[in-house]
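REQUEST ID: PR-0412
SUBMITTED BY: lab tech R.K.
PRIORITY: routine
TASK: structure prediction, single protein chain
INPUT:
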Amino acid sequence: MVEQVMKNNKIKKYERGLTKRTTHGGNMNKLSKRQISISSILLFSIFVILIPSEVYADEINVASIGLDDTAIITATNNSDKEIKTFRVWLGEETNFKSFKTEKGWTGEKNSQGVVIFTSSETVKVNELVKFGLKTDKTNPVINWKALDQENNVIDTGVTKLSKLSEVEQNSNIELNENYDNNGISIFSESTFRTIPDNPNAGSTIRIAGEQFSVLQKFDFYIDNKKIGNLTSDNNGNFITTMQIPNIEKEGRVDFKITGHDGIEKIIPVEVGKKKNTILKDENIRLGIKQVPQTVEQGESLEIEGNGQPGSSIILKIINPDEITTNIRIVKADSTGTWKLSNPINIPFDAIFGEYTLMVSDTVSDGKNIIKKWSVETNKIIVINPEKIKFDAGELIVFTGTATPNIPLELILEDSFGDEIVSEVLEISDSGTVKFEYQTTENEDREGTWTLIATQENNKEFIYVGYDELPTIPVNIKFDKSNYKITEKALISLAGEPSEKISLIIITPSGNVSGKDIIIELKSNGTAKYDLDLTGYISGIYTAVVKKGGSQSSENFSVGTLTGSGEINAKVTHTEYIQGERLLLLGNTVNSNSLMTATLIDPSGTETKSIEIVSNSEGMFSEERLKIPRNGQIGTWQIEIVSGSNRDKIEFDVFSSIGEGMSIKANEKVEQGSLLEMQITTTKKTSVIIEITDVGGEQVQKLTCITTKEFKCESFWSVPKDTIPGTYTIKAFDTASSAETIFEVTKK
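STATUS: complete
OUTPUT:
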């Protein structure tokens, strides 16, 4: 090292001697061209000889900026090695007075005047480090050397200071003349801020405002002195630049924005002396790290980059409809790096298409960096409610898309997890989906409802609020209800994005199986989990998912077999109305038996089929079967099958139109016979009964008053000359109605 310093000193002496000979007496003609040429060759030769053999060009990019005796050195690692040590030294007759390092680095000056910077953390590829130096001479030439972890030289070189430039004042601001000064100009929620927060007199600032009246012209004042004008955009926002005059007053002043109607918005600002607060360093340009090309609804974006130390970074997000949806402001730290403290969340209802991120700062002369990404989806089923909250009594509508020409099962559950309605849709070539449910005030339970959409192996949970804003619960569904011991159960989970939920398995004996399973949901609020069933005994299990005070559960069975022996099953009523749920009870000779229960309408069409399992005592209870809202009137069946064993149950379904009334009558009656009609309501009332023929003509009108059990009976003596055919009975009171049909036959 001493030898190298001595060589450098010799070079400087030679340069000074050459300069003296060249400029003596101010006459360049005293040296011939030949002498200059020889001198140049000799000087070049000395430099070539003195260049260390370890130098690799552009391995390390070193730049320095400063003023007079102060310098900031920035070293960017462009090599394939990591910087562990960085050394700097000065030329002859120049010394270091002091130095500063970044956090984690230490500096030491040795007896030769070399400052050695070291750190426990290395500077990796494409990273940078900064050092502050103060010398006893102005604008020094600084020598440097970078070494790796093995103390081998990565690169070495010389750097000269780049002087700080004065802050460039903005040119005259061109005011957008597309404004319309009508109505209230400034609201209570209107806000604005300056960038930087504490500007200096004579400096150029940016002013950013939000939630002002749209397309309005405003005046900007400092105390009572008007500085300029600005206009708001279509969203009531603005970002513009203003020049602070060289005011004598220092300290707190009022920055004021005034509308055409005299309404003002004022913020106090601390103004300092005029000085160079923004250091213009061409080696730390405004930049942003790579963003993904595609994101999905519900995901988040971490945005970070680099820029001038201390500068304010402004980020604007523009959606596919060219509407600015988000404006963020962040400040670059002392190392020139910046990062949004909160990520950008992509809403679950975000528009699909290309989004633009526009990044600018306060020192780059209005230049913007543009990044783009597209919001897409890899979901097979995409269904959403027409609005997130429906009032009591409203028609709830879901629309979306699914895979064409494949049946889609939809189950709408209320806030208690009870099935409200289910339907299987045949999806057309277009893939469009539309599903509706007419709510009933004072009957349907308020809260967050869940639409569970299933198409083959794809399952989605869609949430909607009924009479209150929805919250996202935790949900669990299995891909089937019964598994072999050798299989894995595929569990679909849903809840708040990125939250962690606990999965607990309850055994047939009521004990907890193993430890809680912690599952983290993806950014879209979903997850799938394969439950290994190795070691599970035959029986019915319960899976419970919990998050805080919210939980959901689902039963599944393992190792159950068909061949139940004799099946004895029944439903709790012999008569039901459209839309009513069934409770199926029964027992089997053999325990842990797998059965299939099928609901069949009067025409023989199977409307729903489910798997049920008897427990260790051979008992079973099932309430997943429900009469469709538009189910046929007549005699329905439930057929329960397990291998060669089967049982069949029959019950009657009647019409229910309106609220709280049902009617039952004979399906057929002969001419001259008596037709019996039974009517049930939900309150004591007077009921009007009308009987009409196939042409809609009224043939009989009767009345009855319900008993304390809210029932009444009425009879119609069918005339002998009544024309055979289908007749309609309609019963109604002031609030509700019901109707059914019957057939008159020849005697």
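NOTES: The CA atoms of residues 265 and 384 lie 41 Å apart.
REVIEWED BY: pending
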